[in-house]
Amino acid sequence: MSLKHSVVALAALVAGASAQAQVNVALSADIGSTGAGLHVVVPMETRLNGRFGVNYFKHSFDQRSGLVDYHLDGKLQTFDVLFDWYLRPQGNFRLTGGIMYNGSRFKATGRPSVDGVFTFNGVRYGGSDIGTLEGDVTFRRAAPYLGIGWGNALNPNQRWNFSADLGAFYQGKANVNLTPFGCVTSNAICTQLARDVALEEVRLAGEASDFKVYPVLRASVSYRF
């Protein structure tokens, strides 16, 4: 589901829920380590709220890994299904659990060294022989979340509320796919290049897997309808 369609779906959910006189519903805007977000909050039990929403953040940066420089275009996009359990009815402190659909992805472009050389697995390749090196980094789609928080978007005593979240979701090992485009040397060298790039994938996956657990720190402002 695209970000645009997700926002439309959230708006429809708010409209439908708020149309029921007996049911409170809140809409929150969030900012934090998962980017900018929009969530719908609905009551489920006396001390339990459900939160459903989307978060998005896009950024680019350069990173040297091993002997190769990479330019990465990152898109962090998550869809949340979270449940907030409050220690007391209409309280503020909460324990949160749930699951996120993790659509985060990094597009990677390899850059040769200043002398125009790529080095994979200790083997040097001329940039003109390789052509371009492109790839992507992804993580597991279903990511369980655990955290704590403060604030209740469905506080019956006020319309506007502020809250914060501190937690983490588990996105598992990284999946790395690298592809050299335009190898124009001999078949033997191109075959060796493919093997060395495959080893580079494994090495990069090991580095990226340091982020198996992604920290979540968010602040939110919400309006109760």
Structural account:
The chain is of the alpha+beta class and 225 residues long. It has one domain (3-224): Beta Barrel (Porin), CATH 2.40.160. It contains three helices and 13 strands, in the order αββββββββαββββαβ. The protein has helices at 3-18, 127-130, 187-208, and strands spanning 26-32, 35-45, 48-65, 68-86, 93-102, 105-111, 117-120, 123-126, 132-138, 142-150, 160-170, 175-181, 213-224. The longest helix is centred in the C-terminal third of the chain and has 22 residues, at 187-208.
Can you tag this structure with a few keywords?
alpha+beta, elongated, 19% helix, Porin, 225 residues, two-stranded antiparallel sheet, 8-stranded antiparallel beta barrel
- Alpha-beta classification: alpha+beta
Strand order of the largest sheet: 1-2-3-4-5-10-11-13
Which sheet architecture does the biggest sheet show? 8 strands, antiparallel, barrel
- Kindly report the CATH topology: Porin
Helix content: 10-25%
Amino-to-carboxy terminus distance: 26 Å
Low-confidence stretches: 17-21
Strand segment tally: 13
Bulk shape: elongated
Radius of gyration (CA) equals 23 Å
**Count of individual helical segments:** 3
Overall CATH architecture: Beta Barrel
Looking at the chains present, what oligomeric state does this protein adopt? single chain
Strand content: over 45%
Mean pLDDT: 87
Taken together, the total number of domains comes to 1
| Helix and strand element order | HEEEEEEEEHEEEEHE
